[in-house]
């Protein structure tokens, strides 16, 4: 994702790779944890089904931008370059009918539109901040903010799609780390009922 300085951070299979939240306020929100939904100004947005929606999801799990050839490889395995580029143009044409900058192309890269908010990206950013916080108070406060965003597994309707498996596991592990952190803090404070509840959530 692009930061305020224009830099980009993309996730890999490492568990500690940060994902930056896009700058700006477009009013577009994409929810991917526990469900998949897009809203603009609080109103539902109907994303075209099929390949356009899959291309959007691919872009999201790659941190907000992805090379078009990676999209081709995932959506049309074995397709030739000309056919793949035609497919990309068709996807962008269908997405443009939504009337919102959900998915745009910059050269050979597909990316989310400026200011598009994604819950999974914010969750991972907050989780990363929690584990590197300078003091326990800041860590637990940030961990609670992160957990408030985690409403379920990443892209649950795509749990049998191969390219969703690694990012789904990564975010689940991040959630477990947040629960463990808060449970440990609860034990230190003597809030044993809370600690047991958090441990039960982790065991689920």
Estimated helix fraction = 40-55%
Radius of gyration: 18 Å
Largest sheet: 4 strands, mixed
Mean pLDDT: 85
Strand order of the main beta sheet, please?
A: 3-2-1-7
Shape type: elongated
Number of helical runs? 7
Low-confidence stretches: 1-24
Structural class: alpha+beta
- DSSP strand (E) fraction? 5-15%
How far apart are the first and last residues' alpha carbons, in Å? 31 Å
Query: What's the helix-strand series?
Result: EEEHEHHEEEHHHH
- What is the number of E strands? 7
Give structural attributes.
204 residues, alpha+beta, four-stranded mixed beta sheet, 49% helix
Fold and architecture overview:
The chain is α+β, with helices and mostly antiparallel strands and 204 residues long. The strands form 2 sheets. A 4-stranded mixed sheet has the order 3-2-1-7. The protein contains 7 helices and 7 strands.
């Amino acid at each position: 994702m692009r930061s305020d300085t224009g830099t980009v951070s993309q996730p890999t299979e490492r568990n500690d790779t940060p994902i930056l939240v896009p700058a700006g306020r477009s009013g577009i929100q994409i929810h991917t944890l526990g469900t998949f939904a897009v809203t603009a100004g609080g109103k539902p947005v109907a994303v075209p089904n099929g390949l356009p929606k899959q291309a959007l999801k691919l872009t999201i799990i790659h941190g907000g931008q992805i090379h078009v050839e990676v999209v081709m490889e995932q959506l049309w395995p074995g397709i030739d370059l000309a056919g793949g580029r035609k497919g990309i143009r068709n996807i962008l044409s269908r997405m443009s009918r939504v009337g919102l900058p959900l998915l745009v192309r910059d050269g050979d890269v597909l990316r989310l539109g400026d200011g598009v908010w994604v819950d999974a990206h914010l969750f991972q950013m907050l989780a990363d901040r929690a584990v590197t916080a300078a003091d326990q108070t800041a860590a637990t406060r940030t961990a609670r903010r992160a957990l408030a965003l985690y409403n379920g597994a990443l892209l649950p309707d795509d749990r049998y799609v191969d390219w969703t498996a690694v990012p789904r596991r990564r975010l689940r592990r991040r959630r477990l780390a947040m629960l463990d952190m808060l449970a440990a803090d609860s034990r230190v404070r003597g809030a044993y009922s809370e600690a047991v509840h958090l441990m039960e959530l982790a065991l689920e």
